[in-house]
Every structure is written in C-alpha cells, then in structure tokens.
Design goal:
Elements lengths: L5 H11 L3 H61 L7
Length: about 90
C-alpha cells in the first residue's frame, strides 16, 4: 500500500500477465480511498465526541451559574422581606 519497491515487482509480473497491472492499480486506488475514508471517519468521530463533551461541560457550567444566581436572589429577596411573610 505504501508503494515501496512496487514497480520492480509489477514489471516482473507484467511479463507473464500483461493485463495484471490493472488489478494492482485498482487495488491501490481502492485501498487509498478506503484508507482515507477510515482516517476521515475517525477524525470526524473524535471531533463529534469532543463537541458533545464540550456541550455537556457548558451545560454543567450554566446549571452551576444558575444555581449560584438563584441563591444570591434568594438571599437578596429574603433581605428585602421586612416582615418575614414571604411576599
């Protein structure tokens, strides 16, 4: 697949089977397409997973911020409630 020393091997075989080069080149072309699709799929999958983790972290941070703000508002409103009636 890396084509290291591929051509000397192919030349020897072509002497016996002249049409065999088509199989070798077809194999290389298909293998490269499959390999690139695999690499692309792995990269995209990792990016999607990282994006999902980022969204989860962002949701946790927003929930923590909302909780802090609610505690602050609760303290603020309790401080304004002079008679303790809750209204």
């Amino acid at each position: 697949l890396t084509q290291d020393s591929f051509h000397p091997f192919l030349r020897e075989i072509v002497h016996f089977l002249p049409w065999s080069w088509t199989f070798f080149f077809a194999y290389i072309a298909i293998a490269y397409v499959v390999l690139m699709n695999l690499v692309t799929a792995i990269i995209v999958e990792n990016a999607m997973e990282q994006s999902s983790l980022d969204h989860e972290q962002l949701d946790k941070e927003r929930a923590a911020k909302d909780k802090r703000e609610m505690r602050h508002l609760n303290t603020l409103f309790n401080g304004m409630d002079r008679d303790g009636s809750g209204t």
